[in-house]
């Protein structure tokens, strides 16, 4: 999955991407992907749409 790396200031393909659940407004659960940047090894995060 592609996400924006804040440190590289470019879109990169996430490494070791896993889907996580986070709390949203109103007590609903939001889906997101969490992984690492292949260039600088910084944590990357991308919020996904509804299922």
Describe this structure in words.
- This protein has 51 residues and is mostly beta strands.
- It has one domain (2-47).
- It has strands at 2-5, 10-13, 15-23, 29-36, 43-47.
- It has a three-stranded antiparallel sheet with strand order 3-4-5, with no helix packed on it.
- Strand 3 (15-23) and strand 4 form a beta hairpin.
- It is elongated and about 35 Å long.
- The two termini are 16 Å apart.
- The mean pLDDT is 94.
Characterize the overall form: elongated
Strand runs, count = 5
Indicate the proportion of strand residues: over 45%
H and E order: EEEEE
Helix percent reads under 10%
Radius of gyration, taken over Cα atoms and rounded to an integer in Å: 12 Å
Distance, first to last CA: 16 Å
Overall residue-averaged pLDDT value: 94
Structural class label: mainly beta
Strand order of the largest sheet: 3-4-5
Biggest sheet features: 3 strands, antiparallel
- Count of helical segments? 0
Question: How many domains make up the 3D coordinates?
Answer: 1
Uncertain parts? none
What is this structure, in a nutshell?
The protein has strands at about 1-5, 10-15, 15-25, 30-35, 45. The protein has about 50 residues and is mainly β. It has one domain.
Descriptive key words:
three-stranded antiparallel β-sheet, two-stranded antiparallel sheet, mainly beta, 51 residues, 0% helix
List the SSEs and their pairings:
Blueprint: E1 2-5, E2 10-13, E3 15-23, E4 29-36, E5 43-47
Antiparallel strand pairs: 1-2, 3-4, 4-5
């Amino acid at each position: 999955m592609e996400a924006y790396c804040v440190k590289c200031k470019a879109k990169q393909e996430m490494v070791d991407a896993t889907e996580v659940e986070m709390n949203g407004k109103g007590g609903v659960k939001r889906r997101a992907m969490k992984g690492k940047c292949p260039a600088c090894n910084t944590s990357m995060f991308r919020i996904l749409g509804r299922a």
